[in-house]
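quick one, 448 residues, struct below
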Amino acid sequence: MTNDMTKGSPLKLIIQFMIPMCLGNIFQQFYNIADSIIAGQFLGVDALAAIGSTGSLIFLVTGWLNGLTSGFSVWVAQWFGAGKIDRMRHFIAMSVYICVGFVVVMTGGLLIANEPILRMMNAPENLMADISGYMAIIYAGLAVTCAYNALAAVLRALGDSKSPLYFLIISAILNVVLDIVFIVVFHMGVEGCGYATVIAQGISALLCLVYIIKKFPVLRLRKEDFRFSFLTIKKLLGLGIPMGLQFSITAIGTIIVQGAINVYGAVYMAGFSAAGKIQNIICTVFVAFGATIATYVGQNRGAGKMDRVKQGVRLTQVMILVCSVALMFVIHFFGKYMIFIFIDAGETEVLHAAEIYFDIVAWAYPFLGSIFLYRNALQGMGYGFVPMMGGVFELIARAAIVFIAAANAGFAEVCMSDPAAWIAALIPLIPYYLWVMRKAEKQPGMLA
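---
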C-alpha cells in the first residue's frame, strides 16, 4: 500500500520507512558478499581477491543504473505528493523507454570493453580469467539489475519500503543456495557466483513486477501513458543523469583506489575487500537514511510543505550522528572478528591489512552519513547538479591521496582516500542545502 509522508510525525515516518530500507540494503549487500564468503571459504584467498576486486567496478555500473532510476523516482514521489496520478504514470512510462535504451547500450559496450577495463585497473594476470568471466556474467545480467532497481524505486517513491525488503530476503537466500550449488556441487568456480547473482536478482525483479500488477492499481500503466514526450524525457534525464553520474563519479574514485590496492597483491586485495564489505554492511544505515529522506523530501516538496522538509532533515542529522558513534564502537571492538566471515583465522596477513583500513577510516563515519543525508535531500527536491559535484569533489580527493600514496608506496596512505573523499564531498553539499532552504522560505516554489 502507498504511504503518504506529508502528514503525521516526521520522526515516526522516517524511522518506520528507514528500518525496512536498512534491512533491504543489508540483504542487497549479500549478493556480492555471499559470493565473496563462499568463494573465500571454498576456493581460497585468490578467489576472494578476484571477486572482491570487482566491487568498485560493479558499483560503477550498477550505481549508474541505481542513480538513474532513483532520479526518475524523485519525479514519481513529487507527483504522488502533489496528487497528480496521471502525470506520475506518464513519467513512469517514459522512464521505461529510457531504461531499455541504456541497458541495451551498456550491456553491449561493457562486454566488449571487459578485459581492457580490467587491465587498466591493474588486475593481476593470474586472476584475470576469473575476474573477466565473473564480470561478463554480471554485465549480461544488467537488464534484471535495472528492472529491480526501477521497480523498487517506484514502490519506495510511493512510501512502500517493506515489499522490496521481502523480495530481497527471498532472492538473497536463493543467491546463497545457488552459490553453494554452483561452486560446491557443480565446481563452476568464480563464474558460478556470477550466475547465482544474476538469477537471484532476476527473481527479485519478477517478484516486484507481479506485486505491483496485483496490489497497486495506481501503477497500472495505460496505452496513453506511453505517448512519447520529449519534454518528459528531458525532465527525467535532467535529474536521472546527474544522479547516475554522481554514483559513477564516486565509483571511478573507488576504481582508482582499487587499482592502487591491486599493486600490493592478493593479500592486500583480500584484506581491503573484506574490510570494505564489512563496512558496507554496517553503514547501510546511512544509505537507508538517505533513501528515506529522498522519498520524504520528494513527497513533501511536491505538497509544498517545506517546513516539514527542514524538520525531517534536522531530525535525520541527529540520528545519523548517534548511529555514527555506535558504528565506530562496533568497528573498534569487533571489526577484526567480522573479517573471519571471509577468511580462515590463519590468514593473519589478510586480517592485518583489514585492521589497518578500519583504524584509518572509522573516525570519519559522521561525514559519510552526512553525505547521504544532504545529497538525497537535495535530490528529493529536484536538484541534481550539486549532488553530482559532491561526487566530483570525492573523486578529486581520492585521486589526490592515491597520487601521494603512489609516491610513498604505502597501503595505509591509500586507505586515507576514503575519509578525505567523504569530507570533500560535503564542501558543496551543506552550503548549497542551506542556500536552497533559505531561498524556499522566501520564495516557495511550485513543481516544474
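The chain has one domain: 10-442.
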